[in-house]
Write a structure and sequence with these properties.
- The protein is an all-alpha fold.
- 57% of the residues lie in helices and 3% in strands.
- It has helices at residues 12-20, 65-78, 82-95, 105-117, 121-129, 133-136, 139-152, 156-171, 178-206, 212-219, 226-235, 260-281; strands spanning 210-211, 239-241, 246-248.
- It has a three-stranded antiparallel sheet with strand order 1-3-2.
- The longest helix has 29 residues, at 178-206.
Length: 282
């Protein structure tokens, strides 16, 4: 009878011990390039679906810490354990060697998407901006920067468009790591679902009635997906008048607004909704 499986390394000491089993102590660390300035607000160019991604596998002779931890990251992503994934990835990223090695993206890309799924956008930005310049220039990194920028600014239609483009990019044959691509594709799907749910809740608070096309634009449903969208809206107790194409959200209970932190976050998001309405109707 076999014993329970060995848990993945999580503490800084355990990670360093795991790395030492394959990395000789005298191995020289790969030269690191200067990290991007965290105050720099320039957003890299979105990768095109046909763009070739440079190899993400480690360039060191032995496996890097990032490669050793990736199976644990994959398991946590598949189980939807975003908080645990963040803990393992953060410790591995901050204590790993070869911080300019492309294999670092095996941890950073899932880490960024985990933060975005939980709507912790400043933390996602911090994880991206501490990448050195050579890794920040990768097509995958640029795509994450673009998606994060649109999400932070609540550019709703851009969020769905860029998430779709990035989803296609990581699943294309030219993407250099199929295992990472599958994990990122699943996490992008989870992110879109979480973003839609939060937006749906915000619309329920912001509107007593809303035109069908405007609601679809907020939630990323095309005109070809109208029936699918209406099924979702009706399942959430929204009402729809087909003659006027007006949706009436169901009232939200006041108790759900309790908690100063949540109320403040909701107020800020509602202000962004109002700004977006002005832009869409201009």
């Amino acid at each position: 009878m076999t014993g329970p499986p060995t848990p993945p390394p999580s503490s800084a000491v355990e990670i360093e011990d795991a790395a030492r089993t394959v990395l000789p102590p005298q191995a020289a660390e790969a030269p690191a390039t200067e990290p991007q300035d965290a105050a720099d607000t320039t957003v890299p160019t979105q990768p095109s679906p046909g763009e070739v991604q440079p190899p993400i596998a480690g360039q060191a002779k032995q496996s890097t810490t990032y490669e050793l931890l990736f199976p644990s990251i994959s398991d946590l992503a598949r189980s939807g354990s975003m908080r645990e994934l963040i803990e393992v990835a953060e410790r591995g990223d901050l204590s790993g060697q070869f911080n300019a090695d492309p294999s670092r993206l095996l941890l950073v890309a899932p880490l960024v998407l985990s933060y975005m799924i939980l709507d912790e956008l400043p933390e996602a930005r911090h994880a991206l901006t501490r990448l050195p310049g050579n890794l920040a220039s990768f097509a995958l990194s640029r795509g994450l920067f673009q998606l994060l920028a649109s999400t932070t600014e609540r550019k709703y239609t851009d969020v769905y468009h860029r998430a779709s483009e990035l989803h296609q990019f990581v699943l294309q044959p030219a993407f250099s790591d199929a295992g990472l691509g599958q994990i990122l594709a699943g996490m992008l799907t989870s992110f879109v679902g979480a973003f839609r749910k939060k937006t749906f809740d915000l619309l329920s608070r912001a509107y007593t009635s809303i035109p069908l096309p405007l609601a679809q634009s907020y939630l990323g449903y095309s005109t070809e997906q109208t029936e699918e969208f209406l099924n979702v809206a009706l399942a959430n107790n929204w009402k729809y008048d087909q003659s006027t194409q007006i949706l009436t959200p169901s009232p939200q209970p006041a108790s759900s607004l309790r908690g100063n932190g949540y109320a403040q976050s909701t107020l800020q998001a509602l202000n962004l909704v109002a700004d977006t309405v002005a832009n869409l109707e201009a």
